[in-house]
Design brief:
368 residues; Aspartate Aminotransferase, domain 2; Aspartate Aminotransferase, domain 1; seven-stranded mixed sheet; three-stranded antiparallel sheet; 11 helices; 38% helix; globular; binds pyridoxal-5'-phosphate
Length: 368
């Protein structure tokens, strides 16, 4: 159906920055700079600077960032890795695909791992924790880092949804051994196809990741240092991402304005929980604006029927997909939020009229 307010509008976004994107495209194409060239280095340098780490390594996807991070941290068979019960499935699949066992932990009201429940999931085999910063809001990293230090665990941050967020000014992706990034088209910094990266302060890890992404090869000497993978960030995507990264601060500011408008317009509706947590040290960048509506699917269906495109990620928790063979240890908060979640449109393409229409439509649901 034709929505009156779309969840995202990639063509409109392109129109906003067309000149810069076209210039980047023409430069790459006319020079024939396709693989591991200056555009990739430039983007990696700018990303590292933005995140506040020494290194960034461009990869093909957020999944690859998680996978390569776990390989580089020597996580493998016999190890357990703690992951949240509510996340995108790739967080967990990366653990399974290095041969380790994911151990799921429930989340709290902010959709992020409930740090108070991590300790009971730790065993003698636990090797790492992957906190996920969901929706643009960081997991409680001071607490995660303290817990990891006291148990000698590696921390890999799944920061795929939270570029630009921070706690006490320290950016997401700069706390753990690595920060893992996705530039999938609909992330806060989205390319025009799959893309991702690792950020890290560890020079050995950065070097290993650079080799693993290119079949284990050292590009200077031609020596193969490992059986690697093919998961290098494309030069063309890097050139596009470099353009978009320059706009990110202004785009985050716009997202915060939209979130403030939603907060004001949707306050006080019965059974509607808004994603505002009043922790001033936590800088929320609103990759997604996920509300919890007690009416669940009746709420999300009403919005869609009235022309507002919304997402409900996810009505079915990933650990309930039988083929994934995961252990359900009982996750009441995840179960409850999966019934209630609804992501309202949140993108820099939204006009003031779009935002007002979303607010009106939500209010109309409660006054129907
Ligand atoms: C998008 C995402 C990923 C995976 O990123 P891809 O680039 O799609 O592989 C992993 N974790 C989270 C939390 C994500 O949102």
């Amino acid at each position: 159906m034709a929505y009156r307010v779309r969840f995202v509008d990639p063509a409109k976004n392109y129109a906003m920055i067309k000149e810069e994107i076209d210039r980047a495209y023409l430069e790459v194409m006319s020079r024939g700079d396709l693989v591991d060239r200056a555009q990739l280095r430039s983007f990696e340098g700018n990303l590292a600077q933005y995140v506040g780490t020494k290194f960034a390594v461009g990869l093909n996807s957020g999944y690859d960032a998680l996978h390569i991070s776990l390989r580089a941290a020597r996580v493998g068979p016999g190890h357990e890795v703690i992951v949240p019960a509510h996340t995108f499935v790739a967080t967990c699949s990366a653990v399974v695909n290095v041969g380790a066992t994911p151990v799921l932990v429930d989340v709290g009201r902010d959709f992020n791992i409930d740090v108070g429940r991590i300790e009971e999931a730790i065993t003698g085999r636990t090797r790492a924790i992957i906190p996920v910063h969901l929706n643009g809001y960081m997991a409680d990293m001071p607490a995660v880092m303290a817990l990891a230090a006291s148990h000698g665990l590696v921390v890999v941050e799944d920061a795929c949804q939270s570029l630009g967020s921070s706690i006490h000014g320290k950016p997401a992706g700069s706390w753990g051994l690595t920060g893992c990034w996705s530039f999938y088209p609909f992330k806060i910094l989205g390319g025009y196809g799959d893309a991702g990266a690792i950020t890290t302060d560890d020079p050995d890890l950065a070097l290993l990741a650079r080799r693993l992404r290119y079949n284990g090869e050292d590009r200077d000497t031609g020596e193969y240092h490992a059986h690697g993978f093919t998961c290098l960030l494309d030069n063309l995507q890097a050139a596009f991402l470099d353009v978009k990264l320059r706009h990110l601060p202004a785009w985050i500011a716009k997202r915060k304005r939209i979130a403030a408008t939603y907060r004001e317009g949707l306050a006080g509706l019965p059974g509607l929980l808004l994603p505002h947590y009043d922790r001033p040290a936590f800088n929320h960048v609103y990759q997604n604006y996920v509300v919890r509506a007690e009416e669940g699917t009746a709420f999300s269906d009403y919005l869609k029927e009235h022309g507002v495109e919304v997402l409900t990620q996810f009505r079915k928790p990933y650990y309930r997909h039988a083929a994934l063979a995961l252990v359900d240890r009982g996750f009441p908060e995840t179960e409850a939020l999966c019934r209630e979640v609804c992501s309202l449109p949140m993108s820099v393409e939204l006009s003031d009229e779009d935002i007002s229409y979303v607010v009106e439509t939500v209010r109309a649901f409660y006054h129907r």
